[in-house]
């Protein structure tokens, strides 16, 4: 479902501020893979997601989604393949619009627009049922402005919006990092449910080692623009944080030193 080959990206090349973010990275995701991505600051995690999303073009290498080469495809065109949830709960929605209106926009993504009545009666019922599945009481608040929701409620709505059209690939960019631990746990449980029920191929960046181990069927760890650890299946299920730290030291030759990750 995702095939990345020899991906390279350097910011500010030829200057004193040159920073190589991706160094010939290769990554293949099978249909239905749920891959968690972890690594220290500057490891290249967000650069990888932004390259897939088309925020910036790689210097070299190719990106294919479901057999389609999207490397040179502009961001707005490749959006039809992707769903994305950002770290900031204020992104990914229109805060001054109602919950129903936000869901309607997401449901029509990639389709031709016409001058018709905005939201039909059967669509409202569908949205109520979808919101009820979140178990957050939002099914009775279709006319509420999204900007009035809590961070957790908003991330849950954003997750629903990102998956309404069943994207080829779901990108989760530290989507629980701005939430308190209890709310983050609930949003991750919703993530597991939605990904499992819709059999979505998913790439989830997290700064939390325990979450990286607990969620998904595969874990990759990045360091200096490369993937240095790639585990899945039974090997991943048996992992502990201590195991992961030991594997990092062995693969990189360095101690893992990232306070945010270590203290999560």
Which topology does CATH recognise? Answer: Rossmann fold
CA-based gyration radius: 19 Å
CATH class: Alpha Beta
Spatial strand arrangement across the major sheet: 6-7-8-3-9-10
Number of alpha- plus pi-helical segments: 10
> What's the multimeric state?
single chain
The low-pLDDT segments are none
Distance between the termini: 31 Å
Mean pLDDT: 91
What is the CATH architecture descriptor?
A: 3-Layer(aba) Sandwich
Total discrete domains: 1
Reading the helices and strands in chain order gives: EEEHEEHEHHHEHEHEEHHH
- Going by CATH, what is the homologous superfamily? P-loop containing nucleotide triphosphate hydrolases
Report the β-strand fraction as a percent range. 15-25%
- Biggest sheet descriptor: 6 strands, mixed
Overall helicity: 25-40%
> Given the helix and strand composition, which structural class is it?
alpha/beta
The general outline is: globular
- Total count of strands: 10
Write up what this structure looks like.
Helix 3 (99-107) packs parallel to helix 5 and helix 5 runs parallel beside helix 6 (181-198). A six-stranded mixed sheet has the order 6-7-8-3-9-10, sandwiched between helices. Strand 4 and strand 5 form a beta hairpin. The chain has a single domain, classed as 3-Layer(aba) Sandwich (Rossmann fold), CATH 3.40.50. It has 264 residues and is of the alpha/beta class. The chain contains ten helices and ten strands.
Quick gist of this model?
By secondary structure, this protein is of the alpha/beta class. Helices cover 35% and strands 23% of the residues.
């Amino acid at each position: 479902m995702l095939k990345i080959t020899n991906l390279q990206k350097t910011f500010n090349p030829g200057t004193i501020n040159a920073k190589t973010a991706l160094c010939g990275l290769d990554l293949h995701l099978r249909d239905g893979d749920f891959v968690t991505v972890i690594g220290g600051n500057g490891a290249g995690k967000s650069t990888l997601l932004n390259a897939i999303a088309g925020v910036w073009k790689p210097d070299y290498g190719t990106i294919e989604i479901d057999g389609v080469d999207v490397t040179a495809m502009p961001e707005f065109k490749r959006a039809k393949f992707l769903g994305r949830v950002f770290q900031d709960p204020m992104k990914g929605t229109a805060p001054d619009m109602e919950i129903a209106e936000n869901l309607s926009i997401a449901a029509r993504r990639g389709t031709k627009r016409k001058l018709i009545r905005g939201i039909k009666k059967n669509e409202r019922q569908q949205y109520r049922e979808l919101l009820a599945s979140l178990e957050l009481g939002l099914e009775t608040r279709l006319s509420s402005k999204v900007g009035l929701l809590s961070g957790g409620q908003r991330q849950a709505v954003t997750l629903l919006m990102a998956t309404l059209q069943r994207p080829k690939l779901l990108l989760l960019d530290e989507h629980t990092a701005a939430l308190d631990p209890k709310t983050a746990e609930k949003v991750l449980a919703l993530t597991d449910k939605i990904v499992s029920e819709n059999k979505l191929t998913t790439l989830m960046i997290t700064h939390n080692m325990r979450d990286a181990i607990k969620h998904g069927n595969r874990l990759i760890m990045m360091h200096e623009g490369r993937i240095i650890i790639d585990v899945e299946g039974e090997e991943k299920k048996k992992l502990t944080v201590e195991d992961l730290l030991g594997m990092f030291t062995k693969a990189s030759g360095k101690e893992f030193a990232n306070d945010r990750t270590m203290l999560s």
